[in-house]
Specification:
Blueprint: H1 3-9, H2 16-26, H3 30-36, H4 43-54, E1 60-69, E2 72-81, H5 87-97, H6 111-119, E3 125-128, H7 131-139, E4 143-147, E5 153-156, H8 186-196, E6 202-209, E7 215-222, H9 228-239, H10 249-256, E8 268-270, H11 273-282, E9 285-289, E10 295-298, H12 316-345, H13 353-363, H14 370-390, H15 393-414, H16 419-433, H17 438-458, H18 460-476, E11 478-479, E12 482-483, H19 526-530, E13 543-545, E14 551-553
Antiparallel strand pairs: 1-2, 2-4, 3-5, 4-5, 6-7, 7-9, 8-10, 9-10, 11-12, 13-14
Protein name: Spore germination protein
Region (Disordered): 511-557
Family: Belongs to the GerABKA family.
Length: 557
């Protein structure tokens, strides 16, 4: 073939962007086809939309049948997902529809109104006017009822996803307090909070995130207490999340947090409904994600991560003492290994002579410097901790005993590490376990390693520089516009009553100032509560003074 001939029969050139557009049009997704489809009122056509687009799914079932309305037969279709809808409820619907329907008292009503009013004894029945809306309802585990001649369908709430029962929270157990924890069902989680807050001011707003998963996300707040700007900011951040899938609360947290590169969590998560309710009553916003037994609390400050709900269920003296012990454990978990390295390697003159001699005797024969010794042992402890979490509970306990006791003892006897190093690492590990928030404990564990490196290079100066950098970083953090170190920096005298120590509940009259709530007053009966209580079991019981000043006996029931 000549050159002219080849040019003559060559395919026309199509730009790349046009080719991509054509390919996208040819490979249209089911969602796009559902979005472009419309109901026309013909049963065969309307059911055909779902058969053509979703018919490839093995769990899509369509039941065709007839109902009789005053000697008139109507063709119907019931569409549902096998396993996601309740078969018992579907059988009840079909049984009610099979009866002869009397329309003598509903002559002016439309066909679908007669069916809804007389045949569907269900609370949650909703009309679906668009195909996309009906498909979302169907894929949520509900069912659709089509009537021939009706240009819409009836949505029936027959969702029957399996869910576990409400159990005790696994990560936030308390001795004195509620035993109920969140589960994976978002509806059950909302009801657990409603049970504790019977007020019409509690507001629950729903949104969906994830183009493919369409995960339900709700954010809850108390209207009249939560700041409107905070609610608006939470709503805006959730609306700006664009992703294919939303796997859980932790996945969502990474989209909406302020500083993505900080090791410190800026959003608190909890699996306790009482803690979520208390946060809302302080003016915070609680976010629930369907499929996750954790709630997100925003904004969060640093002091929240070493507090528990049990602090408020016990008397303030005991609660303050336990909170102080928790703070000491937190400091242990952060700086204890670096202090040990700096004192042993650079400043041994700062420790008592007898203790220094004992440490030197224990380290005799150890071939590694202190920094390498403790760094390696900390690394092994982190590996053991991670392995214990991943293994089944029965095996995990045995592995931790073997790892800590057997390997530690063998390492000391072999001369790889000194006994004092094992003690330091054990105290550090126990201190990290005392931190109530798991994500905050991970941040401290992670910062422990750079502090140890600084201690090994520069001694106490390095530790101080590291602590100053951490404090400076904490001071620069914000969570939804709230300073992370508040109420310490900036100071708030009412907020300081619930930080390092926990003052009596009747003295904490105001909500946290940094949240700028619309109703700052929290306790209004503090003066009456502090006042004299009387002696109800004393000898003067039953004696009441008259207005004239004379005493007279009163009859008790």
């Amino acid at each position: 073939m000549s050159l002219f001939g080849r040019l003559k029969y060559r395919k026309p050139y199509v730009p790349v962007h046009k080719r991509q557009r054509i390919e996208q049009a040819q490979n249209r997704t089911p969602s796009a086809r559902l979005h472009d489809s419309e109901f026309v009122g013909n049963l065969h056509h309307d059911l055909g939309i779902f058969e053509d687009i979703l018919g490839g799914n093995a769990d899509l079932l369509i039941r065709r049948f007839q109902i009789q309305i005053h000697k008139r037969k109507i063709h119907c279709g019931l569409v549902y997902m096998d396993g996601s809808s309740s078969k018992e409820e579907l059988n009840q619907i079909l049984r009610a529809l099979m009866l002869d329907i009397d329309i003598s008292t509903h002559t002016k009503n439309s066909l679908e109104e007669i069916v809804v009013d007389q045949c569907l004894p269900y609370v949650d029945v909703d009309m679906k006017y668009s195909v996309m809306e009906a498909a979302n309802w169907l894929l949520s585990g509900n069912s659709l009822l089509f009537l021939d001649g009706v240009v819409k369908c009836i949505g029936l709430s027959t969702q029957a996803f399996k869910e576990r029962s409400v159990t005790q929270p696994e990560t936030e157990q308390v001795i004195q307090g509620s035993r109920e924890g969140f589960i994976e069902s978002i509806g059950t989680n909302i009801s657990l909070m409603r049970k504790r807050m019977r007020t019409s001011n509690m507001h629950v707003e729903l949104t969906q995130i994830g183009e493919q998963t369409a995960t339900n996300v709700v954010y809850c707040y108390v209207e009249g207490i939560a700041n409107e700007d905070l609610v608006r900011e939470v709503r805006g951040r959730l609306e700006r999340v664009e992703t294919d899938a939303l796997y859980g609360a932790g996945y969502l947290e990474q989209f909406i947090e302020d500083n993505h590169y900080s090791p410190f969590p800026q959003i608190q998560n909890t699996e306790r409904p009482d803690k979520a309710v208390a946060a809302m009553l302080e003016g915070r916003v609680v976010i629930l994600v369907d499929g996750t037994p954790f709630a997100l609390i925003v904004p969060a400050v640093f002091s929240q991560f070493y507090q528990t709900t049990e602090d408020y269920d016990t008397r303030f003296l005991m609660a303050s003492m336990i909170r102080g012990i928790r703070l000491v454990a937190l400091i242990f978990s952060l700086i204890f290994p670096s202090l040990y390295v700096s004192l042993i390697s650079f400043n041994p003159e700062m420790i008592p002579t007898k203790f220094a001699v004992a440490v030197a005797g224990g380290r005799a024969g150890v071939p590694f410097p202190a920094i390498a010794e403790i760094f390696g042992l900390e690394l092994i402890m982190e590996i053991l901790r991670e392995a214990t979490i991943r293994l089944p509970q029965q095996i995990g306990g045995a592995l931790s005993i073997v790892g800590v006791l057997v390997i530690g003892q063998a390492a000391v006897q072999a001369g790889f590490v000194s006994p004092i190093t094992v003690v330091i690492v054990a105290l550090t590990t126990i201190g990290s376990f005392a931190t109530p928030a798991y994500n905050a404990a991970i941040a401290l564990r992670m910062l422990r390693f750079p502090l140890m490196i600084l201690a090994g290079m520069f001694g106490l100066y390095g530790v101080m520089v590291g602590l100053i950098l951490i404090a400076n970083h904490l001071n620069s953090l914000e969570s939804f516009g709230v300073p992370y170190l508040s109420p310490v920096v900036p100071g708030d005298r009412y907020g300081l009553r619930d930080t390092i120590v926990r003052m009596p509940v009747w003295s904490m009259k105001r909500r946290p100032k940094q949240l700028r709530t619309n109703n700052p007053q929290r306790v209004r009966t503090g003066e009456d509560t502090k006042g004299p209580k009387g002696r109800p079991l004393s000898e003067t019981t039953g004696v009441r003074r008259s207005r004239g000043g004379s005493a007279r006996e009163t009859q008790k029931d």
